[in-house]
Amino acid sequence: MRFLVVAVLAAGVPAFASAQTIPPKEEQIAAAVLPLPEQLRAGARVIGYDAGGKFVTLREGKGMVCLAQYPKEPQFHVSCYHESLEPFMARGRELRAGGTVDAQVDTVRFAEVKSGKLKVPGGPATLYQIFGKTYDPKTMAVGEERRLYVVYVPGATGASTGLPERPRGNDPWIMFPGTPKAHIMFTATMR
Question: How many whole angstroms from its chain centre is CA 175?
Fold first, then answer.
């Protein structure tokens, strides 16, 4: 489970990119929505990079928000999450762009949720991700693809969900229990 922590934190994307490596808008959109079930792809909002390397909305939409791959990342990684998570995810991107690193991002966000400054969804919200070694925009094939599905349940614990707080075999488990970032992890290898 080498991607556990990275997977859920990866929704924070760097705020700049090199203009020479930025794929065309339509290619970014096509790749960004790949994690979603087919019926959700056309209506999703997509955030990616403009020609100047600025992180912008490439396509308006509702329901889900998808993040295009950061152009300088050597491995393919895209994610989509329910729009109710956007304030929490956007704040993470903002903090990382400002130089806040690793667990400090969550320390700040958790304090802001507690103070009422930052809102989290009142109920479950989903996140889909795809990781891969390579991506071919012509065929939309992802090499060595790994998928992850997460259900955010802010404040949930092992006791409230009946799930373990650590991976156990091929069963789902809860991460960050009792926090605004509590979520249930599912992987493609689960029965």
Answer: 15
